[in-house]
Amino acid sequence: MKKNAFYAQSGGVTSVINATAGALILESKKYKSKIGKVLAGKNGILGALREDLIDTSKESLSSIKNLRNTPGGVFGSCRFKLKSLADNKREYQRLIEVFKAHNIGYFFYNGGNDSADTAYKVSQISDEMGYPINCIAIPKTVDNDLAVTDCCPGFGSAAKYIATSTLEASLDVASMSETSTKVFILEVMGRHAGWMAAASALARSSKGDAPHIILFPEIVFNEDKFLSKVKQIVLKYGYCVIVTSEGVKNKDGHFLAESDLKDAFGHSQLGGVAPYLASLISKKLSLKNHWAVSDYLQRSARHIASKTDLLHAEAVGVHAVRYAVKGMNGVMPIIKRGKGNNYTWKIEPAPLSKIANVEKKLPKSYISIDGFNVTNKAVNYLRPLIAGEAFPDFKNGIPSIKKLKLEMVKKKLPDWKV
Questions:
Q1: Which residue among 117, 143, 145, 309 is the active-site one?
Q2: What residues make up the domain containing 31?
Q3: Do residues 201 and 319 share a domain?
Q4: pLDDT tens figures, 165-195
Q5: Is 143 assigned a catalytic role?
Q6: Given pLDDT bands bounded at 50, 70 and 90, which one contains residue 126?
Q7: What burial letters (b/e) apply to 183-203, b meaning 16+ CB within 10 Å?
Q8: Any residues with CB less than 8 A from the CB of 275 and at least 6 apart, and which?
């Protein structure tokens, strides 16, 4: 029997998550005997709970195709974690009510670690609550910390932005270092895994190039060793470029810049490690410095997206549909790297039971012995992921973004509140 599909975006968005959405919608059109409409949830899983559903069939074909050029999350995202079925059966009953009301038999959830957990819980509705659903989680995260998959769509483009920004900023610092700034600090995302900070190493083309110091969450921060390293680099090169993960911790296991605030998933809000390090360098070494936090810029920079990353993002969207119509449930299309010197890859299904709530950190073999750099093994892993350019169309000097109609489906159920 033909069923409608529900698609939603979750967590921090990326520059290519909409490419996944567009590819999924277009691929769904090829299975008209099995998939009716693709209904997108407004603001992630909340769209399902609140019955806020967007009818993507109302969009023009050109608008759907143009999603590959659009950063952000066009349908809206959220940070909302479903509790277990035992802890909050009400939420799952509501999902089933909405699914029944709108003839939804396919559930696609596009997100990272916490989103994989949500998708895994939804996939269990079939067995535990007797509602037939084919639930497919789709990988996305600039943090690159999902287990099993070789890499995560969104990471390659963020890595390309970080490497490029590190290169460009280092040339600026070098040119001013004789009489002005001696140290530049760039803070990048990465709460528990240092993949994004590691990507800055791709800025180097020869020995001695920036970044000179990389700080990872996997390595305990030692203030004395750090300051000694900064002093050493400045004496040797005249300047020092530092790239740090936001999640660097001290010997007590506390974030260097942890605040008292928590996000919707219970994670500590980080207050900015770059200004913390800048203050430390100013006070202890009396070196003039500048710092920057890449923040949303690193994950929304579609203008400099990696072509490889874009192809990954579209492929997982296509395969999600193919797995769903085959009757698969509780799986994720993952990227598998081929063997050999030339970079090759393919998409395979992997069970969510092996992905949900598992965090992939930077391997020890990717970090130098002194803890301030990456190894050649890390560079060899990272380099192919930023390969190729996929420039969007430009109009009046800036990227041309086409907006969707975002027409809502008429509600059939009483309102629901979180």
A1: 143
A2: 3-153+305-358+391-399
A3: no
A4: 999 999 999 999 999 999 999 999 998 999 9
A5: yes
A6: confident
A7: bbbbbbbbebbbbbbbbbbbb
A8: 257, 291
